Amino acid sequence: SKLPEEFEEHAEKAKTLPDTTTNESKLCLYGLYKQATVGPVNTARPGGLFDMAGKAKWDAWKAVEAKSKEEAMADYITKVKQLLEEAAAASA
């Protein structure tokens, strides 16, 4: 399957997403990326009062823990494509 190659390609493309990309979308991509590369969440949820970003990232990863690595890769690719299309439409 070409999935891993396509995943790597879209991980690179994700770096070109505009600053207007919502935090929600970025967190979604983060969670799917971690699930695709690491698998289910393997760390404790950050407990620090001021680590809101860390908690949000952990929660985004935890939210997709039931997906296989392949499913996470496929979903990640779909999400990056969608965000790139939205960005292109917004700048048209």
DSSP helix fraction: 55-70%
The H-and-E topology, N to C, reads as HHHH
- Which CATH architecture? Up-down Bundle
Alpha carbon gap, first and last residue? 34 Å
Global structural class: mainly alpha
- CATH topology heading: Acyl-CoA Binding Protein
Number of domains: 1
Average pLDDT rating: 96
- Overall strand count: 0
Report on this model:
- With 92 residues, the chain is mostly helical.
- It has one domain: Acyl-CoA Binding Protein (Up-down Bundle), CATH 1.20.80.
- It is 66% helix and 0% strand.
- Helix 2 (23-37) packs across helix 3 (52-62).
- The relative contact order is 0.22.
- The mean pLDDT is 96.
Which descriptors apply to this entry?
92 residues; 4 helices; Acyl-CoA Binding Protein; 66% helix; 0% strand; mainly alpha
Blueprint of the fold:
Blueprint: H1 3-14, H2 23-37, H3 52-62, H4 69-91
Helix pairs in contact: 1-4, 2-3, 2-4
What does this entry show, briefly?
The chain has 92 residues and is mainly alpha-helical. The chain has four helices and no strands.
